[in-house]
Write a structure and sequence with these properties.
Layout (H helix, E strand, L loop, with lengths): L1 E7 L8 H6 L7 E5 L2 E10 L3 E10 L1 H6 L27 H10 L1 H5 L6 H4 L3 E11 L3 H9 L5 E8 L9 E14 L1 H16 L9 H9 L10 H8 L4 H36 L7 H16 L3 E5 L5 H7 L6 E6 L2 H11 L6 H4 L2 E5 L14 E5 L10 H12 L3 E7 L26 H15 L1 E8 L10 E8 L1 H10 L1
Parallel strand pairs: 8-9, 8-11, 9-10, 11-12
Antiparallel strand pairs: 1-4, 1-5, 2-3, 3-4, 5-7, 6-7, 12-14, 13-14
Helix pairs in contact: 3-7, 7-9, 8-10, 9-10
The structure holds S-adenosyl-L-homocysteine (SAH).
S-adenosyl-L-homocysteine binds next to helix 10.
Length: 490
């Protein structure tokens, strides 16, 4: 199986930069062993004007069978010979996608130290896949690639050129062309869509495939019109995984719609505060209140759940009392920004060992969240639909169970004090609800009761005698007898 990637260039921006971007030198033919055979990378042309890299995977049909995964769909009993004689060596399938991601892993992530400025820029690209199995036909190929900005040429391959009356095979020759995409984007499209079109994954689909799909789909899958088909085929039609992926994509979409507004609202709040002799912005007051409560609790290892763009993580890092800080968010985009802002890649080893960011959804229990001293949910709960709140409650209070949990949320009563907020409006387009002090207390008391915690309430921002503070914070502390018992059991 085989594909080529070409670009064109000028003397100032030579096409041979493709070699830097792919991390493969144009003058060398290189081979790599992968789980299913040898992958070769070679260039058929390489000058300033044009450069073409080819990826060729020599599938080891015997290895494929030994691994017990060459049977194809259903593993029919008469498939003994079909195990060895099948299209796998020739057709671009999930095997090629796996080879692509292992041979071009840095390029797929958009990492290029030699030409960092080019890695992030769209470039002229032409990708050709001579034999692509296309379940769903040329029409589906178009529906998958065209919304991503590709000009698509798809020619059906005849079953046998000597006998045109036999009609077409299920293979097509695919050419994708664009100058609006980065190389990393192009590779990620292929990584997901080759197996989708082949629709016969060679390996068992485990639950980390959902993570892989969301990572490779970052920036394009949440808005793709064929998202459901892509997700379901990529996950080999395992409905539970497909449902999880679809839900997480929906959350990503909402969170991203969101993020772009987060700064706006903080700025708006700041601008508003400016009329009153420059007091500290509310977002900063919130952060200070959280850090003070964490210090009082004696926590050293802290989770920031729904960390957004990492402002709190950043502040916690400055305080030596916190030895380990983990930011979790459902939005890959928010995490990318957080990582850039924290300069994670340039941090010294000591600092870097104190901080971690990962993607996850609070609507699902997650063992990675266990064993911390404290968890912060700063302005997060109001982003979930009310019916999902019990799932978040279980993830945090039922499963992760840190000794201290801090939850902040807007106090809706205070909204009448924001001059720029029209009456009856919430503060943020994505807030699913905003609670009165009474409503928040009722929820928090019940949560504490159900899970063996005590809870206290702390106002954040000016505590108005009539309507209360703009932000309300609940400080949950696990009952000491429960804590002792659990600490002993652990
Ligand atoms: N904690 C930050 C960001 C609040 S905005 C702050 O105080 O400024 C809400 C954040 O919650 C967003 O980054 C959004 O992506 C995240 N979020 C929303 N639903 C989530 C979920 N189900 N799981 C994890 N994070 C979620």
């Amino acid at each position: 199986m085989f594909l080529t990637i070409s670009t064109t260039g000028t003397p100032e921006r030579p096409a041979t930069d493709l070699g830097f971007l792919l991390h493969k030198h144009p003058e060398k033919a290189q081979a790599f062993s992968t789980s299913y055979g040898r992958a070769h990378v070679l260039y058929s042309e390489a000058d300033a004007g044009r450069c073409t890299a080819a990826l060729l995977l020599e599938v080891d049909a015997v290895a494929l069978v030994r691994r017990g995964k060459g049977k194809g769909r259903g593993g029919a009993p008469d498939a003994a010979l079909a195990q060895y004689v099948n299209d796998r060596p020739y057709a671009a399938s999930s095997l090629l996608a796996v080879a692509l991601s292992s041979v071009f892993s840095s390029a797929m992530r958009g990492v290029c130290n030699a030409r960092p400025e080019r890695a992030g820029q769209p470039m002229p690209l032409r990708i050709e896949v001579p034999a692509l199995p296309a379940r769903g036909g040329p029409e589906l190929v178009r529906r998958l690639f065209e919304p991503l900005g590709w000009a698509v040429t798809v020619d059906p391959v005849a079953l046998d050129v000597r006998f045109p009356e036999w009609g077409d095979s299920r293979y097509v020759r695919l050419v994708l062309e664009s100058d609006a995409l980065t190389l990393a984007e192009g590779l990620r499209h292929l990584y997901v869509l080759l197996p989708v079109l082949d629709d016969a994954k060679h390996y068992w689909v485990a639950s980390d495939e959902v993570d892989k799909l969301l990572r490779a789909g970052e920036g394009w899958l949440p808005d793709h019109p064929e998202q459901k088909l892509i997700t379901s085929r990529y996950l080999s039609r395992r409905w539970s995984l497909t449902r999880e992926a679809m839900e997480r994509l929906e959350l990503v979409r909402l969170a991203e719609a969101d993020d772009s507004e987060v700064e706006d609202i903080d700025n708006a709040v700041e601008a508003e505060s400016e009329t009153e002799e420059k007091p500290t912005p509310l977002a900063v007051q919130r952060r200070d209140a959280i850090i003070a409560a964490l210090r009082t609790s004696g926590a050293a290892r802290v989770l920031d759940l729904g960390c957004g763009q990492g402002q709190l993580v950043h502040a916690l890092l400055k305080d030596r009392a916190f030895t380990e800080i983990v930011g979790v968010d459902v939005s890959m985009r928010a995490l990318t920004i957080a990582s850039r802002r924290l300069k994670l890649d340039r941090m010294g080893e000591r600092q870097a060992s104190r901080v971690q960011l990962f993607q996850g959804s609070l609507a699902y229990t997650d063992n990675r969240l266990k064993g911390y001293d404290a968890a912060v949910l700063s302005e997060v709960i109001e982003h979930l639909d009310l019916p999902r709140l019990p799932a978040l409650e279980y993830t945090v209070f039922g499963s992760a169970r840190p000794r201290t949990v801090l939850v902040t949320t807007p106090n809706v009563e205070y909204n009448v004090r924001w001059e720029t907020l029209p009456a009856g409006h919430v503060r943020h387009g994505d807030h699913r609800f905003e609670w009165t002090r009474e409503e928040f207390r009722t929820w928090a008391d019940a949560v504490a009761q159900r899970h063996g915690y005590g809870v206290e309430f702390v106002p954040v921002g000016p505590d108005d005698p009539e309507v209360g503070p703009p932000t309300q914070m609940a400080v949950f502390t696990m009952n000491s007898t429960v804590h002792k018992k659990e600490a002993k059991a652990a």
